[in-house]
Structure formats: structure tokens, C-alpha cells
Amino acid sequence: MTTRFISDLHLSAERPDITGLFVQFLQTEARQSDAIYILGDLLEYWIGDDDDNAFHRQIQTELKALTDSGVPCYFIHGNRDFLIGEQFAERTGVEILPEPSVIDLYGRRTVILHGDTLCTDDVSYQRFRKVIRHPWLLAVARNMPLSWRRWLAIKLRDNSSGNKQLTAEQLAKYDAKDQAIVALMNDTSTDLMIHGHTHQPAIHAHNVKGIESTRIVLGDWYEQGSILEVDANGFELKSQPLATP
């Protein structure tokens, strides 16, 4: 069997092509998986489990169908959907994991995370993240009026590079930094890391205290679907064409 990882879908009602591919994925190869891991930014934004609309209900229904079929699904918060909470988990059957999390991936100790904490050169974002993700402020945010939370979602979207065209200098600034990567792998005693966020899908080699280690970066779904498949024999980072509207 196979374990599959996805991230940075940024699902929204305005992109039915992305949603179509995601639903197709949940109804086909996802059903043949040992587990599905969603490493953040599943939604373009999520301002609270009480923001009930038809599009969000559709996504939750599809996820519930997957977990009801017997496939476990795990989720780590991204920078767009960190307000996903326990009501979402109950409606979907998805288990929310802390960030970072360490899992046993076919005998290999693996650290998984969204990835934004690795982008340490983006100092202004790291300051903003530290404030906005403080447990006290999260509790306050969940009790804000929906209109205020919509403003917050716009602010977060404006603070994210998203799918904008970036210069080489900007790409370097927003990318994960080797010092943060090695430190986390060392702290978690892992030699495999999987994350998203940077929208730069690739497989990287790192040296962690003399051990050859691997970092796999998942791609976003703006132009194609990006799926990492892992089994006992290895891994493959795949892309799929978006669904025709």
C-alpha cells in the first residue's frame, strides 16, 4: 500500500478546476492509501468552523466520505487555515496533528510540517506568525465576529506570496533555510522531512550530523496537482493535470 501527502491546494469556490481534481483524488487513489496527510493550506482561507457555506460543506462532505471508507486522514495547519478546529475534525473524521509531527513512515522516522517556520529569512512574517498563532490570540480570534475574521483572512492572504510572480531574490528570501532544516531534523532525530508552503516542489539532500538526510517539498495546486506517494520501496513526487471546469 501507499501513503500520500498533499499541501497548498488553496481550495476556493473560484477555482473549480482545483476542487475538481481534489475531489477526484479523494474518490480514487486516496481510497487505495494506507493514509492521507494534508500538510496545510488545504483552503484558500478558513476563518472558523462556524463559517458555514456551501463550498466548505462540500469539502467537509468529501473528506468525511474518505474517512468513512476506512482511510485515515491527517491534517497540519497551514498559514491560511490555522483556524481549522475540532468541529471541522468531527465533521470530517480528519485528525489534526501538532506541528511539527514525527511519524513512522514504513520504518523511517519522518518529520512532517507545513514549512513556513523554516523560512527564517522572512523576519517580518515570522514575527507576524508568532503573534497571530499565540494560543491566547487564537482563542480570541475564534470568538471574533465573522466580519472581523474575514478581514484577518485578507490580511493573511496579503502577507503571503501565494501564486504571485516572484523574483529570484524574493524566492530565496521566502524559501526554507538550511540551518532551520538541519536543526529541526536534529532535534527530532529524523532523516526524512516532508513539508509544503514554499510552492517549490523538489527533493533535497541534507547532511545532519554526518547522516545523509532527505527533504521532500510538496508543490502547490495552482497549475497542477502535486502528490507525494510513499511506500516501503521508496517515494515519488507526482504531478497531475487540473480538472477541466
What report would you give on this structure?
It is built from eight helices and eleven strands. It has helices at 16-27, 54-68, 86-92, 123-132, 135-142, 146-158, 168-174, 178-188, and strands at 2-6, 33-38, 73-75, 95-96, 101-105, 108-113, 192-195, 202-208, 211-217, 225-231, 234-240. The longest helix has 15 residues, at 54-68. It has a single domain, classed as 4-Layer Sandwich (Purple Acid Phosphatase, chain A, domain 2). The strands form two sheets. A six-stranded mixed beta sheet has the order 4-3-2-1-10-11. The chain has a five-stranded mixed beta sheet with strand order 5-6-7-9-8, covered by helices on one side. Helix 1 (16-27) runs parallel beside helix 2 (54-68). The protein is 34% helix and 24% strand. It is α/β, with parallel strands linked by helices and 245 residues long. The protein is globular and about 50 Å long. The mean pLDDT is 90.
